[in-house]
């Protein structure tokens, strides 16, 4: 058992996977609705003007589909993991591209731009790999939807999805 498989990290990773799958499903149901999510150890939050019924149905479908082998739903192209990966990799490559040269800063721009574009392209693959291996876990044990609760703050709508993960049965 590795560090990422220890509670509460594995719980957060599983909730993150369910959050992504839920957003995939909701995005197909409501393609014109802007939405985002954020997972934690108790479940996740979906931001977006959606009905509580639609969110609840999408969560149950997400869990069912991940369990039935659709692990790809656990990865989302707009995940913060991808954004952070892109920012870090681009920053590092641009800094490294400008090091060790005693040229005027204007002469370093083509090298820095080339490095930045390469980093952005590479980070798409790296971000997906990080989601699959580090920030999500599509191996769902027993998980129950405890509650889906709508809250509205002015025009902003969010749904708290509270999940309960049962411990995996131990083999004696």
User: What structural category arises from helix and sheet content?
Assistant: alpha+beta
Task: Describe the sheet with the most strands.
Answer: 4 strands, antiparallel
Low-confidence regions: none
Second-tier CATH architecture of the largest domain = 2-Layer Sandwich
Spell the H/E element sequence.
HEEHHHEE
In percent, how much strand structure appears in the residues? Answer: 15-25%
Helix content: 40-55%
- The CATH class of the largest domain turns out to be Alpha Beta
State the helix count: 4
Quote the distance from N terminus to C terminus: 16 Å
Number of structurally distinct domains: 2
| Strand order in space, largest sheet | 1-2-4-3
Rg, Å, rounded: 20 Å
Q: Look up the CATH topology of the largest domain.
A: Threonyl-tRNA Synthetase, Chain A, domain 2
Shape verdict: elongated
Beta strand count: 4
Give a topology summary.
Elements: H1 9-29, E1 36-40, E2 43-47, H2 52-67, H3 80-98, H4 105-135, E3 143-153, E4 156-165
Antiparallel strand pairs: 1-2, 2-4, 3-4
Helix pairs in contact: 1-2, 3-4
